[in-house]
Write the structure tokens for this entry.
Amino acid sequence: MKTTVFIFTLCLTVTFLFAPSDAQERRPIVQSDKVIIDEINVSGNSYFDKDRIKSQLTVSEDKWYAIIKRKTLLTDRVIQYQESLVDSLYHVNGFLDAESDISVLKRTQSNWIDLHVDIFEGVQTRINSVRFSGGLDELRKQTKNRLEKLKTGEPYNHMQIAEIAYDVEEIYNNNGYPYCQVKTIAEISADRERADISMNITPGELSTIGDISITGLNLTKGPVVRRELLFDSGDIYNREKVLDSQRRLYSSGLFSYVSINTEKYPETQNPPDIKIKLSERKPNFVNLRSGAGQDEQRDLTLDAFVEYGNRNLFGTGRKFSLLASSSFGMNSSRTQILNFRNRFAASYVEPWLFLVRMPLEVQFSYEPSTQSATQDYVYTKYSTKFALTRELDRHTELILTEDFESIDIHDIPADLQEAFRERQGIRLSRRFTVNLQKDNRDNILIPTTGYLTQMSAQYAGGIQGGDVHFIKISANWNRYQILKGSNVFASRLQINWMRQLDDTEEIPLEDLFFMGGARSIRGYRENSLGPKFSEDDSDSSSLWGTPKGGRFALMANLEIRRPLFWRFGGTFFTDIGNLWDEPEDFGIEALRLTAGAGLQFFTPIGPVRFDYAFRIIRAGDDPGSRYHISILYAF
């Protein structure tokens, strides 16, 4: 505690001694060099507070705690843009005559300046009356929710009115009326306090789609493109289907550029023509990848991959690829890195199975002469995987997977292989997995709004055969919401459960659930929570007290995320949950609760994360805290 007070006092002292001088000199707006903004002062405002106005700007004050001073290039154009941002904030809130003026005050210390924002708010205009006319009765129900957003007494917002008009036109466009026009008239009173709004909907004629032309194809066959289209000549025009067709063409992976334009004829209102322009990707590709990680038996693993393939076999959109990978790991003595596994795989993707957009991937893999990490034997593994994917809607995907594997242990006769596998704990698996995912996040790496729902069910063994027999079910729900300013509230709820089908066979360690660490309950070591090995579980005393996994897990996480400066962001979080051997063992008293803070550095591949968490509710564990370094957010 004394150390913390001393550091805080020292920071205040240094800040006071080295703070920029208050002496200021008014300068022209034009600046040729990059400057550091010390303060942004606001005057003339009453409707919005100064923090709200500052948040509207794209330039910001330099923070005292910033390690890297943020320099900004200020020009006349930049200043004018900042003024337009402040003006637009007022204009969309009914202050039609609001104006702002930003001036630069240069400090005597070089490269340090202050900005002064002087605001004239004027009179706020509010909606006095709203009148709608025109339109079709059969679409009135669909447009009702949009039109009801205009309410009397609310500030006049020309952007909101334009958005509502666009939404109404979209509804008509998606129901066969591409020539719909929505005209809005706003009558402002002489005292600028009231606005009377009238909106007229002219639907135009019901139209079908005219001719469809496709350009840019050199290798890909025409039917491959047309099968991705959700419309055809003569169909009732639907703009949403046109946009979805463009997305489907991109997702096929065959094209680097896709443009679908609607050629309209307003004067005659003839059926609109559709023009599709495409740029094909090269069919042959080579991928090289490498990575580092760890597994249950090795503290460090290094992997290298090379893949060669063709994404557009004979112009049909089918894909074939060959992959080779090598894995290296540190041996038990940690004095040598050994190549413990090599893998070769061939995969084939049929994008349309039985004339339905339902990609089927078939993969065969071969792992020759793999050295066991725990025993003195060498084995060869053969695996086959079938994965069937069905897109239920724009955000929802269903994936069905079947996995088979076979193991041939070297120097063991075929009739003795099963007995040897049983003695050594080598288990063959046959698994059927169903994954359902609904994802409408605005950004996969750094989400700020939306949600992600994932449900998975796996059936291993049973009628499929093999040595592993269980049912595993997992459910995961993530939610992201923008709070005041730039704050993002992120939450996650996760439930995992599994049941053993054959009491005579133990579930392999790698199939059980584990918890604790950077991506689950921070403040604990990786996979350290839950049941531990005891004398009843193993004769090896080296295992006693180590995690052995569980069959039921429950976890919840809450985070508040916000940008700090430059490429840095910060979080405050709390995690709660635990792992049990069976669902019957669940107890609230066994839950662990941790909390902490984190710092992120944002890179093109996602944030690099540094978290510090301490234990609050320990359920008998020792007090403690832990640092975590990881890539990407915890969820």
Observations:
- The domain at 126-202 is CATH 3.10.20.310 (Ubiquitin-like (UB roll)).
- The chain has five domains: 23-120, 126-202, 212-280, 282-426, 478-635.
- The mean pLDDT is 87.
- The helical segments are 2-17, 50-56, 76-91, 137-147, 158-173, 222-226, 239-251, 417-424.
